[in-house]
C-alpha cells in the first residue's frame, strides 16, 4: 500500500471509532443482539454486518431483523 492509502485508512478508522454508537438488534423471533456500533447494511448481499462486544464480526439477514435501536 502507498503511504497515502495507509494514512487515509488510519484516518477513516479513527473517525469510525470516534463515532461508535452501541445498538441493539431485535430479531423476528424476539431474541436480541447487542452490537458495538450501528450495523451496516450491505445492499448487494442483503445482510447487516456488525461487531459484537466480544470483538467478533457477524452478519445477519435483513429479513430476520425486526428493529435496530441505539443504546
UniProtKB/TrEMBL annotation:
Key words of the record: Cell membrane, Lipoprotein, Membrane, Palmitate, Signal
Record bears the keyword Signal: yes
Domain spans labelled Lipoprotein YgdI/YgdR-like SH3-like: 22-69
Domain of life: Bacteria
SUPFAM superfamilies per record: Sm-like ribonucleoproteins (SSF50182)
Keyword Cell membrane annotated: yes
NCBIfam families for this protein: lipo_YgdI_YgdR
Protein name: YgdI/YgdR family lipoprotein
Species assigned in the record: Stutzerimonas kirkiae
